[in-house]
Amino acid sequence: MTFWSKVLQAMERSIFDEELTRECERLRTGGFITGFELSQLLDKLAGENKLVILLLDDFHQVIDHVDPDEPDLLNTMRYLINRPLRGLGTVITTLDPLHALCRDMSFRGSTFSSRFASMQLGPFTWDEANELIDRALTSTGVRFTENDRKSVYETSGGHPAQLQRACYNLFEKLC
């Protein structure tokens, strides 16, 4: 299944409008999905004051699978983001800056990363780390002691991805 097919499938489950849901299904099952078809669907959503937000975590893993000479996915995404009505918002997280990840890509027109505002996130504070831990453990029946929390915080330095990894490893040991 292609990237856009997966996006459309998720939209089908989230849009509570029969006509738009059918349109998502038609595009998803109709073969090759063009940027123009996606833009028409997004325009319909925008016309109904709806917005699709793509939250793309670990986007560097997607970039690893994009052909630098033919970055069609990125070109389509940039096209959809640049349109006047939009109907699409995009939040991307990466380990490295987006402009560095896309440095070797051959784009038609402006670069992909030029449409995004960059924000480097620092390590979590102790309180933020504990809030993340508390939320993640909700309904699991597992509890981290104060020493557990100190250990994962010190191990990770408060870095969100490393903190999640350290918590996951501890969680697996406790289960």
Shape: globular
Question: How much helix, percentage-wise, in residues?
Answer: 40-55%
Count of all domains: 2
Strand/helix succession: HHHEHHEHHHH
Mean pLDDT over the full residue set: 90
**What percentage of amino acids are in beta strands?**
5-15%
What's the count of strands? 2
Describe the strand arrangement of the main beta sheet, using strand numbers. Answer: 1-2
SS element count, helices: 9
Ends apart, CA distance between termini: 34 Å
Tell me the structural class: mainly alpha
Radius of gyration over all CA atoms, rounded: 20 Å
How do you describe this structure in short?
This protein is mainly alpha-helical and 175 residues long. It contains 9 helices and 2 strands. It is globular and about 55 Å long.
Written description of the protein model:
By secondary structure, this protein is mainly alpha-helical. It has two domains: 3-115, no CATH class; 126-174. Helix content is 54%, strand content 6%. It contains nine helices and two strands. Helix 2 runs antiparallel to helix 3 (35-47), helix 3 packs parallel to helix 5 (72-82) and helix 8 packs across helix 9. The longest helix is centred in the C-terminal third of the chain and has 15 residues, at 160-174. The mean pLDDT is 90.
